[in-house]
Amino acid sequence: MAKIRDMIPAFELFQPTTVGDALELLDEHRGQAWVLAGGLDSFDWFKDRVKRPSAVVDLGGISELTGIRDVEDGIEIGAMTSLTEIERDERVRSGFSVLADAARHVATPQIRNQGTLGGNVSQDTRCWYYRSGWPCYRAGGNTCYAAAPQAMNREHCIMGRSRCVAVNPSDTAPALIAVDAKMVVESNGGSTVHDAEDFFIGPAIDITRMTVMKSQDLLTRIHIPARWADADFYYEKIRDRGSWDFQLVSVAAAFRKSEGKIEEARISVNGVAPFPVRLDAVERLVQGTSGDESTASAAGELAIQGARPLRHNDYKVAMMRNLVRRAVRSVS
Amino acid sequence: MAERLVGADIAPPDLHAKITGRARYAEDFRAPGMVFAKLLLSPMPHARVRRVDASRALAMEGVIDILRADEVPSRDGPREACLTDTPRYEGEPILAVAAVDEETAAAAIEAIEIDFEPLPFVIDPLESLRPGGPNAYVDGNQFSGQDGWSDFKWTNTDFAKVDAGEMPDPSCPVEWTKGDPESAFAESALVLEETIVHQSLTHHPMEPRSNMAYWEGETLHAFVSTQSSQQTKFALAGALQIDPENINLVSEYCGGGFGSKIAGTTVMQIPALFSRKINRPVMLRITRYEENYVGRARPGFQTWLKMGFLQDGKCNAIDLIIVQESGPYGAGDFNTAGMIADLTYTPQNMRFRGVSMYTNTPPKAAQRGPGGAQIISMMEPILEKAGRELGVDRFEIHRMNAPRGDVQFGPRNATLTSVHAVEALDQGREMFDWDAKLAISGKRNGSKVTGVGIGLSPYTAGSRGRDGMMIIRPDGKLYVHQGIGNLGTHSIADTARPAAELLGYNWKDVEIVWGNSARAYPRSTVQAGSQTTTAHTRANHAAATDALRKIREVAAAALGGSASSYSVDSGRVSGPGGTMTLGRIAERAIAMGGEYSGEVLPDDVHAQTVPAAQILAGEGLMGIARDNYGGEGNIYSWVAGFAMVELDEETGMVELKEYVGVTDCGTVIHPRSLGAQVFGGSIQGMGMAMTQRWVFDPQWGVPFANRFYTARPPGFLDIPADLKWGAVGIPDPQDPVGAKGIGEPPVGAGAAALTSAIADAMGGRCVCRTPLTPDVLLAEIEGRPMYGRLEQHVG
Questions:
Q1: Cα end-to-end span (Å), chain A
Q2: Which neighbouring-strand residues pair with B703?
Q3: Would an 8 Å CB–CB cutoff place B794 in contact with chain A?
Q4: Phi/psi of residue B103, each to 5°?
Q5: Are B685 and B677 contacting, i.e. CB atoms less than 8 angstroms apart?
Q6: Do A241 and B714 touch (CB under 8 A)?
Q7: Cβ B651–A323 below 8 Å, yes or no?
Q8: What is the pLDDT at residue B481?
Q9: Model confidence pLDDT, tens digit, residues B672-722
Q10: How confident is the prediction for chain A on average, in pLDDT?
Q11: Are B429 and B395 in contact (CB under 8 A)?
Q12: Distance CA A81, CA A234 (A)
């Protein structure tokens, strides 16, 4: 079939006003319905005619999915809350600045106005072979073009590969892992709460998805427990262009300190694997230290253990090492 | 006293329409019965169409017809047709389908069954130069009109050196030598040799080249996106093989072109031909994705450079080899690059060798500063490297090597009308506070290192001999008819201002007429090569001088006294016999007829001007003349760019902290517009050097980074808010107005200031490739370079 781009095919649009109605629609159109949040990932797919859902469920009219609320144990963010709101919200800025920082690093102001937290964590990979509609593993085919010997893969993964070498593109994902966020996923069968680090899945689990969510699931809200409020946070995103760019590598970290020592840490890196990577071993390594230079260096080296770069992304190893170093170093 | 117009800021006449959205770009036009066309693009970099079955598509409700390659003009050799059955790049248009709406046309394209025979392809020109390497065409890789196709290869000996990382000594189709480079290198105190890759980049103007066309009898109405206007009409007529006077070309606004729409007639032919076939207006909206393919690109260079320097820092010899990645239809950048290297560094001894190689990548064309921007961004950091190694101040090494007024450059010792590169450098040094910045060069702040650098960039900036035409109507206003295009540079207005000032007009009484060929235009330049400011301030000045003579003569005839005793000011002519409004003068000119009202024209105006003047004849007092001011030498402008950056050694990220661009472009006509050009061009150059890229998969021969977010041109948020610009402001002595163009040279300056500043932050190490993205820099810092020294199309 000849290829046409930039022309959205027709679909049936549903605009429910309650979560219940949305879930019913997803159930009714099981496997055929597409969940539309801010549209920044979705419309790319649609206009390229690579994904052609027959039904689209627009969550934009469901008011219960928006807003940031204080809850008994921390705060709760509706999945349709805009990234701008998260970036600017005083509770997020003061208590969980790593998330506000991450949101601020997403693309451009216009995109952050339109983009949502739920959409940001649920978006598909930006592997350009896959996004161009090539029949790769992730698209149901039987090869990975990005892993071929001559492939252009500077933005692909250095760890966590399983047939597919794409990376997770979300800026907020590592920040949510750093604050130990809980992702509330609802379906007609009820609701499930996933730790942020478990919400994101790699190709070894399911090569066609980036998260645990299946077609009839809906991410409704994200709970950020108070436990990590006001911790020492670190966020950094390296990208080719100062604005409107996905990360090459990013790091998000939270540190609890006592008397100058790290009591506990949560560190996550994105852009290096098909899922945001939590660095448990590094977290253990830095425990009880002051985040001094030698600890930071050791942490960086430990973080990249097992990294297997592709032809054009060897730099990511050094970039990841250095970002983890900087995150640990920030404590001291 | 009428207001001063030259050197003052104005609101351009198209401003309100642009801001309010009333401006009509090609895509905004509609016509009764209009249908939409969509293109079927080649999925392969080189192929032959074996079979097309459009029966299912044509049977779809709402589908009107199909347009095939055998229905459009084509020529043998490496010449582009608007549709082809032998596509030479992925994305080349094969056929078009018209339907009542775009959705139906798109669905019809998908319903077409098409069978391609894949053909060998090449995207890296060096591979095509290798003995036994693939060619972009079945018949060879070089073409001449006389001899046809040939198979041009370098030798195994050449490639033994290439593969060993040494400078080869190949024969090239283009070679010239001046002076005695070999002896000069022997006398050099320092010789630097570098291998350099400059990437190929798409133009990506904001407005894709959408256009619409319909016919009324033999007359084609074409609504197009083009940089030029009057000359585009002639180019389109040539492409369609019709009489230019049978085209009504409408191009009121153009959302940028950067050289890709100088005429831009390839895609324009499709709706014109389709409309003629189906006898309905046809709109072809080009999408961003399609623009990436059909919208032209800057050729990439793979280059070997050897520069020799005397002990004091003077460059005394250059040996330059450029292999140009030219796409399937060629480009000329590499020739210009050789000339500009000689001009900028004045070595007196230079050898240039260049080869333009056809490749199966989207077509190349001039992109703002073509050839110059590439070579300057690559050579300036090497010049600074020489300064470091010789212990010569880096500013001084730029200054001592910059040309003076007596410069002769290129194989035929070309000269310039004027050159004030040194003054631009000096002014930039002051504005940037170079000496203070130099003191913090190399300073560390944690992992961040400060670097400062300079980029001095020339480019052609004018031409001569065009026609000007204007008319003062009985309403007293001055109507300046501008056949140049309106691509956002304000030149449609700015080139009229010296003429209006000569005629004593206030700006509110000046009407600029542009954008629709039915409104009559004199012979104009193509809007390219930064010619327009020079060419049309001159032409309009000539026409205004003619108008002034006629005004005085009409006034003397009416009021008595000698014509020379009358003067104009604020819409009136006054002299010993009294005063009259120019509106009354226009009425009298109509009554007098002959040359006064344009019914008799000067003998020397161009044949293209005559029918336009005949349209206006008898409607007022006409000023019309050819630019006969003459002049010797080439017209070049300069920009000296100064940049300060911070390089983070742990991430490879570079932050631009400060930038100053100072131009030598003669008389400043419109300061605000000039500043916008210096900034816009410099930022475009910064993108070229730093963020923008185009990537091809070598196995499949197809490009990625096809959209804005993946191609990464710099945006508003990627630059400091307080960029600074300045102008030397010395008029060109060979010009009645003294102004030179400015569009091109800022690109090289912005790019080179950054490549130089980054090299400075790297302790003087030149990475010698673009773009200098964080991966490339970090890998270099880590001692594990990302790409092979000559790898092209990566990133």
A1: 59
A2: B696
A3: yes
A4: -60, -45
A5: no
A6: yes
A7: yes
A8: 98
A9: 999 999 999 999 999 999 999 999 999 999 999 999 999 999 988 899 989
A10: 97
A11: yes
A12: 23
B127 Cα to chain A: minimum distance (Å): 15
Q: Which residues of B touch A318 (CB under 8 A)?
A: 778-779, 782, 784
First to last CA, chain B: 59
pLDDT at position B716: 84
Residues of A in contact with B696 (CB under 8 A): 152
- Quick one: which of A191, A259, A188, A266 has its CA closest to A225? A266
Which residues in chain B are closer than 8 Å to A154, comparing Cβ atoms? 775, 786, 794-795
- For residue A111, which residues of chain B lie inside 8 Å, CB to CB? none
Q: Which residues of A touch B794 (CB under 8 A)?
A: 152, 154, 312
Task: Give contacts of A323 with chain B, Cβ < 8 Å.
Answer: 650-651
Query: pLDDT band at A243, cuts 50/70/90?
Result: confident
By Cβ distance, the residue of B41, B447, B705 closest to A3 is B41
Best of A313, A315, A319, A332 to disrupt the B interface (most B CBs within 10 Å) is: A315
Q: How many CB pairs under 8 A join A and B?
A: 126
pLDDT given at position A3: 86
CATH architecture for segment(s) B24-119+211-284: Alpha-Beta Complex (3.90)
Q: What is the pLDDT of residue A280?
A: 98
The matching CATH number, chosen from 3.30.420.340, 3.40.470.10, 3.40.50.300, 3.30.365.10, for B465-626 is 3.30.365.10
A152 with B652: Cβ contact below 8 A: no
How do residues A49-85 score in pLDDT, each as one tens digit? 999 999 999 999 999 999 999 999 999 999 999 999 9
Look at residue B795 in the predicted model and tell me its pLDDT. Answer: 81
pLDDT of residue A155: 97
Helix boundaries (H) for A228-314: 280-286, 293-303
What residues does CATH 3.30.365.10 cover in chain B? 297-462+633-781, 465-626
Give B46-97 pLDDT, tens digit per residue: 999 999 999 999 999 999 999 999 999 999 999 999 999 999 999 999 999 9
3 state DSSP class of B559: helix
Smallest Cα distance from A38 to chain B, Å: 17
Q: A238–B109: do the CB atoms touch at under 8 Å?
A: no
Query: B297-462+633-781 is classed in which CATH architecture?
Result: 2-Layer Sandwich (3.30)
pLDDT reading at A1 higher than 80: no
B476 CB contacts (<8 Å, ≥6 apart)? B509, B571, B581, B582, B583, B586
- The pLDDT assigned to B775 comes to 96
Confidence of residue A274 (pLDDT cuts 50, 70, 90): very high
Tell me, yes or no, if B114 comes closer than 8 A to chain A by beta carbon.
yes
Closest chain B C-alpha to A111 CA, distance in angstroms: 12
Provide the b/e sequence for B517-536 (b: ≥16 CB within 10 Å).
bebbbbbbbbbbbbbbbbbb
pLDDT at B635 (0 to 100): 98
Q: Is B288 on the interface with A (CB under 8 A)?
A: yes
Q: pLDDT (tens digit, 9 = 90+) per residue, A26-38?
A: 999 988 999 999 9
- Distant-in-sequence, close-in-space partners of B414: CB < 8 Å, separation ≥ 6: B339, B408, B633, B634
Residues of chain B with pLDDT under 70: none
Strand partners, B662: B640, B726
> Among residues of chain A, what percentage have pLDDT more than 90?
97
Q: What span, in angstroms and rounded, lies between the C-alpha atoms of B711 and B771?
A: 11
Q: Which pLDDT score is estimated for B677?
A: 97
- Tell if the CB–CB gap between A243 and B715 is shorter than 8 Å: yes
How close, in Å, is residue B289 to chain A by CA atoms?
Answer: 7
